[in-house]
Amino acid sequence: MTRVTIGPDLLRWARERAGIMTADELAGRFPKLSEWEAGTAQPTLKQLEAFARVVHVPAGYLFLPTPPEEPLPIPDFRTVEGRVVRRPSPNLIDMIYACQERQSWYREFSLASRMPEVRFVGSAKLDDRPEDVAADMAARLGFDVGTRAGCRTWEEAFRLFISQAEKLGVLVMVSGIVLSNTHRPLDPDEFRGFALADDRAPLLFVNGTDTKSGQMFTLAHELAHLWLGTSALSNASGAPLHGYRREEVWCNGVAAELLVPLAAFRPAVRRDEPLDEAMRRLARQFKVSTLVILRRLLDVRAITRDEFGETWGKERERLIALSGRVSAGGGDFYRTTLSRVGKRFARALVESTLEGETLYRDAFRMLGVQKTETFNTIGREAGTIL
Fold it and tell me: Where are the domains of the chain?
């Protein structure tokens, strides 16, 4: 039986990196983990490989002399109570890398297909007024208040929002798990979304475990990052921001104005209307969540900051209780997979694979599937295979 010498610091680092704070939490799987970490016993190679799989770390990392640095590959704009968030989870890191691989593939596909550049990327500057940028976004997207009036619900408006963004050239991906692994949920308290700017393959990722209302605002927020031409990782909500960088505050302002333009909102506000009634009426009218409406009521000074603070937390908890954190495995599998990778990306990948330009092995990995039958069904759902 071959045993391997592994530094205890590496084992502790890998465990804590995965969010497992004590060795006792893994005692059922690895009864001698405490001894390994104390240096009084060593695992076999098979045990070490199993441990690496459980904590989602490459096994090779465990043979390094010291724990590796893992800087995020994109700017990190997240804060908690005004402090920068230091250590990203393995799930977040792996999700960013997966999306970067998809983006890189799509960029090459775009160049080979001689597709035009996506010209809005980088068209805005931080000195631009959020109102002006939001108006430009609404016009290019075809997602103004009038268009949304035809939607029955704001959930339907969210689906329209995604569709219009993809028509504009954006790869939109919404998922609550890493690839297709339902045992690796993404934590909305860690991040809500990220943007990967590129003039041929701009990509937005929205954390699907957040509430639907939160997802809609995140989509608008990350689109604003693309208009600036910047990649970013965000955890900002629709609430006014304190302790965040200027870019995040600006993107939040653009997102709020895109979803609920003040020029249309002010005339719709009624004096002396009870707050609960106002939030629900205006949410139906503008096809957004009550949280976005609450933010805009504060912006037009229809409520005080104390009223906002008291109501925001209660309303968010109500929405979470109403919808629940979205189940990673719920709903139609094929449609869920399309949502995770985006229809625009899926169509291109299936087309390229069927034409022999992309290996099935690579396509399966990027889609998160394992069978040809599943691949073909996704192609039919995406409209590539008849």
Answer: 8-63, 79-323, 333-382
